[in-house]
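Bench notes, afternoon.
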Amino acid sequence: MSNPLSIRNITAGLMVLAFAAQAQGLLSGTEDAVLTSAPAVPPPIARKQPAKVVVHLEVKEVVKTLSAGVQYTFWTFGGDVPGKFIRVREGDEVEFHLSNHPDNKMPHNIDLHAVTGPGGGAASSFTAPGHTSQFSFRAINPGLFVYHCATAPVGMHIANGMYGLILVEPKEGLPKVDREYYVMQGEFYTQGKYGEEGLQPFSMEKAVKEEPDYVVFNGSVGSLVDDKALTAKAGETVRLYLGNGGPNLISSFHVIGEIFDHVRTEGGTEINQQNVQTTLIPAGGSSIVEFKVEVPGKYILVDHSIFRTFNKGSLGILKVSGDDNKDIYSGKQLDEIYHPEGGAIQSVETPKKSEPKKVVLSTPQMMEKGQRTFTQICAACHQPQGQGLAGSFPPLAKSDFLMADKKRSIQIVRNGLQQEITVNGEKYNGVMPKLDLDNVTIASVLTYVRNSFGNKGEPVTVDEVEDSGHGK
């Protein structure tokens, strides 16, 4: 017959060992990982002890929009590109379940750069359609890590969108910020050229030559604009978890009008740079950047290999609301005619502030000024001959939309445009930011565009711009 006292002593001893193990981070509870689709990020981890974290991730091959009018068969982790954001804590035991949807045509696996072990889990997670694989790993190194498919041909699986980020938070956590976002760059290689409509197949030839037709954030052209733009309020601190799925190009990530206060390069946990303008993110790599937004407005996220932004799609928007801070940024204070010859302007009496001198230009002068303005500001998007970019920037050449309504054109140039429009029978839904041009410049550039690229129309006068109700 058992001795009750001995049983109690053994039980008590086991409890002591259990509590000791838990205190050392060797034993704790089990929880399901919170997974989010870009640009959302799971909440910071509040617990102070490691846990067993269970991740369920499904591979799906889906047809989705790559650009306006352009469809592509994406291979995805979780139905989106990039794959779901995974957030765990240093010391966690991660139990990983990878499911390959029965409707898929290809076997897939996952290589997590956060894994210490052969293949990053790739061999253990090789999964045929209609099957689920399971493996576990200990998250022993904190940092922001890429994961991707590593099934042969590896480059093709990655190029079709099979990549994402897993954050292993350091045990002490990361400093608190107001906003966190998930942004990941990737390239797509299509048999058709950029903007060619229809369902576009993958081009192995272009991928091997490293000549992508699309370089985008979060899986498609326009994924971070309009109502999908990132948001913040003036005075807040923003943290971006940045990744580069590649498979080939290095990203030169930059936010126009902002400076990164802190950068954790290559996804490490230490702040190793401050006051950075542009940070490099290698293919298969990451970076964590933080910055305080001081001034309201629209900030453009770009790959500063800049033709990728304006010709291949790597453009996003961060909308910052709040009150102006003129001490930091004044906005435009002056725009006047520049006379490099100097002589003529010296004979003109300086007008009183209450009665500003009205600038009057002849039509040839307006055409000349308008051409300069178009070349400097407009041509990057609408292209040098006004032909536009299919699916992104509408054509100005022989544009029925432009020529149909002069007043509407004035409003668009002055205030920008954020809505779907139809130009020459094609739909466009991009972003034209407010350019903050003066009346003379608006009248000049519209006069030039309305009488160039196959267009022929009446000049736009300064009076017409002023009469539109919001003249400067």
